[in-house]
């Protein structure tokens, strides 16, 4: 059974997507419990189900994508506030989450043309631009609800603005393509310009090697956010430099702590950059990354684990989190690797999870 099929079955059968259509943040294998449903993770899952449907044409994947999208539009979306909370029981909203949710809804909208998916995606885009706007052209990463006041910055990368926000801003660019609204393109290019001006200082960014690994993950988001403009010389240079830097820091960190999604993100970026004529693919490095990534996917009698990807490894021990985003990135990276070796057409940017 292929890695793709096993991962798809995990999304369908593990219980990670609940009856509401919402998707849990992750499954804790040691306590055998799902964490609470997350709107951001449901957005990622919506994109993943659409991607799986594009490959297999199995109707069940599109059905599940629609269920996830309906959760986002009918349960998670707070019409009175005009935004989407982080989780139902936490009065916070994240700039990054809104961009991921917008992209997930657009993925389902392109397949179904259900108006509500596009309308809520547009609402997420407006919230990002208006609610999160900060002095100096930045965007606050987190807001307290219902007042939409900024959360104090500091600590982890996700509590401060930075180049990683470019992946969320890609939601604006995708909305621009769907609607033709020029201001959406302008907002994306504003974050693009700021990100290109600041990305060089994002890594390593912390003396703790484990935190550096987390920042590598976020730095990959920056590189993914470049893709609408990858043909521009400045973006191509950043992609080329970024892939080299990720590989270097990954090699330093992986003996003590490594995240499976970083292997997946780097492998995806290598393939995309090669297909775009930006950076020739290092076949030996990609082969190693694909093999390392495969080690995080488990065959198990328990359907809550079988086919899913574990989040990371501390030393020689897998951390007990079976993670939807790790699984989504992992299944896509391995599929792209197989397609690359088979000489199949490249992935369209809209399908990048």
Mean pLDDT: 96
Unreliable residue stretches: none
Tell me the name of the CATH class.
Mainly Alpha
> C-alpha Rg, in Å?
19 Å
Helix fraction? 55-70%
Number of strands: 11
| Series of H and E elements | HEEEEHHEHHEEHHHHEHHEEEH
Q: In order across it, which strands form the biggest sheet?
A: 3-2-11
The best one-word shape is globular
CATH topology-level name: Glycosyltransferase
- What percentage of the residues does DSSP assign to strands (E)? 5-15%
What is the SS-derived class?
mainly alpha
The number of domains: 1
Tally of helical runs: 12
Could you give a short account of the major beta sheet? 3 strands, antiparallel
Determine the N-to-C terminus distance: 23 Å
Task: Label the CATH architecture.
Answer: Alpha/alpha barrel
Walkthrough of the structure:
By secondary structure, this protein is mainly alpha-helical. It has a single domain, classed as Alpha/alpha barrel (Glycosyltransferase), CATH 1.50.10. The protein is 56% helix and 7% strand. The chain is built from twelve helices and eleven strands. Strands 3-2-11 form a three-stranded antiparallel sheet. A three-stranded antiparallel sheet has the order 5-6-7. A hairpin with a 4-residue loop joins strand 2 and strand 3. The longest helix is centred in the last third of the chain and has 21 residues. It is globular and about 45 Å long. The two termini are 23 Å apart.
């Amino acid at each position: 059974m292929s890695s793709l099929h096993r991962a798809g079955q995990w999304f369908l059968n593990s219980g990670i997507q609940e009856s509401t259509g919402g998707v849990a943040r992750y499954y804790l294998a040691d306590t055998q419990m799902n964490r609470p449903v997350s709107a951001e993770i449901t957005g990622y899952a919506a994109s993943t189900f659409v991607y799986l449907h594009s490959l297999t044409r199995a109707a069940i994947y599109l059905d599940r994508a629609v269920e996830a999208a309906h959760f986002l539009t009918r349960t998670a979306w707070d019409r009175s506030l005009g935004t989407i909370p982080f989780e139902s029981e936490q009065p916070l909203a994240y700039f990054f989450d809104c961009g991921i949710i917008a992209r997930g809804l657009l993925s389902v909208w392109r397949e179904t043309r259900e108006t509500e998916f596009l309308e809520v995606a547009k609402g997420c885009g407006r919230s990002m631009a208006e609610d999160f706007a900060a002095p100096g052209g930045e965007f606050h990463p987190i807001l307290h609800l219902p007042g939409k006041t900024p959360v104090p910055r500091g600590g982890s990368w996700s509590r401060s603005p930075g180049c990683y926000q470019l992946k969320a801003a890609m939601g604006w660019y995708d909305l621009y393509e769907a609607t033709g609204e020029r201001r959406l393109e302008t907002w994306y290019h504003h974050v693009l310009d700021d990100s290109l001006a600041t990305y060089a200082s994002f890594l390593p960014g912390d003396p703790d090697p484990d935190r550096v690994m987390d920042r590598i993950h976020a730095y990959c988001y920056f590189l993914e956010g470049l893709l609408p403009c990858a043909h521009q010389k400045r973006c191509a240079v950043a992609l080329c430099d970024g892939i080299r830097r990720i590989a270097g820091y990954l090699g330093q960190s992986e003996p003590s702590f490594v995240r499976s999604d970083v292997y997946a993100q780097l492998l995806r970026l290598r393939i995309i950059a090669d297909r775009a004529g930006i950076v020739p693919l290092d076949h030996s490095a990609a082969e190693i990354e694909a093999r390392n990534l495969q080690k995080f996917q488990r065959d198990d009698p328990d359907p809550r684990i079988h086919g899913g990807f574990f989040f990371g490894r501390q030393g020689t021990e897998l951390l007990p989190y079976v993670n939807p985003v790790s699984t989504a990135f992992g299944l896509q990276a391995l599929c792209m690797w197989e397609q690359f070796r088979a000489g199949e057409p490249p992935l369209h940017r809209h399908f990048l999870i």
